[in-house]
Amino acid sequence: MNKEAEYVLRTVEERGIRFIRLWFTDVQGFLKSVSISPSELEVAFEEGMTFDGSAIDGYARVQEADMLARPDAASFQILPWRPDQQVARMFCDIVTPDGAPFEGDPRGVLKRNLQTAADMGFNFYVAPELEFFYFRDSGPDPQVLDRGGYFDLTPLDNAQEYRRKTINALELMGIPVEHSHHEVAPSQHEIIVRYTDALTMADNIMTFRLTVKEVAMEHDIYATFMPKPLEDFDGSGMHLHLSLFEGDRNAFFEPGSDNGLSKVGQQFVAGLLTHAAEITAVTNQWVNSYKRLVAGFDAPIWISWARNNQSALVRVPLAKKGKSSSVRVEYRSPDAAANPYLALSAVLAAGMAGIRNGYELPPEVQDDVHALTASERAAAGVARLPETLADALDRMERSELMAEALGEHVFSWFLRNKRKEWDRYQHHVSRFELETYLPIL
Question: What is this structure's pTM?
Answer without folding.
Answer: 0.94
